[in-house]
Amino acid sequence: MAPNGVNYDDIDAEIDYTDIEEKYQVQYDEGLDNLIAVDGVPVIDKSKADKLLAKIAKEFTKKGAPVKPDDIFIPWDEKTGKSKGYIFVEFKNADDAVYAIGAMNGFPFDAKHRFHVNHFIDIEKYADLNETYVDPEPEPYVQKEHLRAWLGDPQGRDQYVTYRGDEVEVFWHGKPSQCESAYKKLNWTDLYVSWSPLGTYLATLHRPGVRLWGGPSWAAQQRFAHPLVRLIDFSPNENYLVTWSHDPIVVPEGAQQGPQYFSPEDEGNNIAVWDIKTGNLLRTFPSSYPEGGEEGAKKQMQWPALKWSADDKFVARVTPGQQISVYELPSMGLYDKKSIKIEGVVDLEWCPLGDKDKEDEAKFASGKSNKKPRENMLAYWTPEVANQPARVTVINFPSRQILRQKNLFNVTECKLYWQNQGDFLCVKVDRHTKTKKSIFCNLEIFRVREKDFPVEVVELKDTVSDFSWEPKGERFAIVSTSDPNYGNPAPGITLKTDVSFYQLERGKGDFKLLRTLPNRTSNTIRWSPRGRHVVLATVGSSTKSELEFWDMDFGHDDVNRREGPSKEEWGSTIQHLGTADHYAVTDAEWDPSGRYLATSASAWRHTLENGYAIWDFRGQELDKKILDRFKQFLWRPRPRTLLTKEQQKQIRRNLKEYSRQFDEEDAAEESNISAELIAQRKRLVDEWNAWRLRSKEESASEKRHGGKKAASLEKQPKEEAKEEIEIWIDEVIEQTEEEVLE
Amino acid sequence: MRPILLQGHERSLTQIKFNSEGDLLFSCSKDHIINVWFTENGERLGTYDGHNGAVWTIDVDSQSRFLVSGSADNTMRLWSVQSGKCLYTWEFPTAVKRVAFSEDDEQVVCITEQRMGHQGAIRVFKINRDGDGTNQSKEPTSFFYPVGSKAVVCAFGLNNNQIITGHESGKIAIFDAKTGDEVLNNERAHMDVVTDLQLSTDRTYFITSSKDKTARIHDTRTLMVIKTYTTETPLNSAALAPGKPYVLLGGGQDAMSVTTTSLRQGKFETRFWHKIFEEEVGRVKGHFGPVNTIAVSPKGDCYASGGEDGFVRVHHFDESYFRAKPYGEYEIEE
User: Could you give the ipTM of this predicted complex?
Assistant: First the structure.
């Protein structure tokens, strides 16, 4: 009886609770989860039962699933008096039963008998299975978004992505009125963002792995589960992705399985190769570090760790000092099942495919031509070991035929630079004098399109800190320095450098100095992706931040550029277009069309005036944004043009006509903008005035209600009286000193 | 616009104030001194001596009769503007960070620092204007602790019952001067410390500056943000220019990181922004340290800035300033 006298039992009796009871009824286990059925047991008489049970129990126990003979039940055929050939085993709990199934399924009991172990309840389930075949419902076709939709922009604008604070934003870049945000997302990435090499995907890095995004709505396209991924690298044709994490791969128990996930064999590795289209994991590798160096010293891993051939068919991995392993795609198997053993190998670079090579390949593939395209080439170098000189080797792949080899002496370090069309290979050789005290530089230039790969040597007295080929061109630029501070960087010291341009002398066939710009501080060369224009930048310095814009073919049209400067004086076409300054710049990058340059000051390097600026190729500032916590600026790359050479020529010929059209558009737009701007300002002023009137009225009426206070306020203006201010100005006009003699 | 350089302080300026006629300029500094200057020619009229600590704040009444100052020596003092005599001293447990007169000159509000176990407090005092001013009440008419983030700047609002405060968290709030209740607040007014708060002539709106690199105009009634001026440097002060649609912003790299940055990088200019269009229209260089405080004469004919470098620079606007209409003809209400 409840204390307040109400009898709850009575009330309970009146209400029907069955619906609630039904809803919340606890689903009990059927209690058969711990029971397994073992098929394939020898058929026996009852007399042998004990012996069999003991044997089976022993076998189970051996495999780690302890069973007592009492827990085993043998069904008997009453008629024959023999067992039915299967038994039931009961375990303490369901987990043990699951383990026993795993351990004992397919166990060879003796020569004739092999166990087939299943859950007892499964047998029931499958016995009841509906035998009629039902066609699986075909998945409805969903139209996928076009991943290259951005190229179809009617205004032909380029895109870029910025990463600031927690916000990633994609912008359109065109004429001032056409610059707008395309997409914006908070916390889109945990580390940084990256475009794929042809601009199709945007990759974001997160704790669980990498995600790719694309299409006009920026939908998620693919994901790669590599926990704690730090670095990524796309293959040149965006078919594959390489990821790296500092933490070795661990496959926890109960992890998801399947072709897209790591399996226990991958444990301990750092590098993973993925297929982008399917999202499948192809292979994993441990990271490899350069040989030698002091123990305990922090070793710098090379990145990219895997080098892709230009056609995505092969990927090479250097085991420093030992070998080059080339893997074939898509199987990711070691090509020819053996690595190329090269003692002491340090680094390799694949030869890029030029436009012409790509055409040849396409023709060959479509059967239009039976001329075989050029084979893949790779160059590698080995340092001096014992009495062996250092050596640069160019080989064909897959035939592995050595095309050219060059011995080098007194080598400290080599760097391999291919020109982007695969016409030239420059090996920048840092050489030391006999005393090993000072370092100078040789450039060994291989002309790989010519027979036997003639090599030319450009000897320099200074050290070269940056080297860069002109894309699609026959020129290169170097930054050289003789500054004693080179090699021991200290804060606040900006190195004095010289910038030199070299050009292939047609006919003679060797490279000759075009011009040297002495006494610079520039340390970075940025060629426009279309060649001709080049920017020399001083980045990473706290005192200097100059950007110099140069034109290499001033006074020439693009059309007859190939004839080049042979007619005129050597080096006369180099023209300085402009100088600009972006304080504390850390990065400079040309847009894919080669018309604009973007410079940025990233908060990853310092926190002074972070932000970015966009310049045209003459060095005129178009846009500058100072944004704190600004981190990253990346132009969206464009794939190769689809126009044929003839079509491109046609456009070049009609350039004047096009430019007239564009000028008209610009003029129309300009008047549009100013009208818009004026309207906008008018609106702002009207809004402000309306608000002012409103608030003045409100406060006036409040004052009136206040009564007394208002009176005191109104008095004030009356008090205003004119006041004369007198200022004494002492001005000494002349001062003479007289000595009075008494 | 040739500036007059006032070299009367040995340490960084903390606040400067014009009197209501704009003929006198008061300045206070960390060197314990309060100076008064003739605006017209920059001649020093006198000093108000007595504080034993950095003087954080000053305010002058509308009749230029009394001056009130707050200092790190834990006192607030009332001075006779004319004679320079200290009329009264209030003592507190902690430093006084901000003082302000009410519109009718009858009251003074002050903020004391949160330190040494004492909470930051807001006190309102009645000022006895009769007699020579030495006969003041020691006890505040109201006394309260704002909850949450500490208050750093304050002023009387639309009427003498309201106190507008700016807080360390970037919050802006209105308190009832009598009860100490928080009447209204805007928690997200700024993202960082509010560094200055100055009211418009009719007190219906006010401008605040903050270390979050923005200055904003707020409606005094609703505390709604009306305008935002986003710069690239932490701001220490913001002022409204009477008569012209401009706001003046001053700031720069923090004092502690100044030595590591060049002059160019420091952003020590006074910036002029268009009040309505939120666009920068001009800059005035001069200080070689951050600008700590800016004041515009109530007449709108000159402005002064006080810097971390210890100088006050008084700029009388040129004729061209009054003629210039950078955005064309717009009739803009004050």
Answer: 0.80
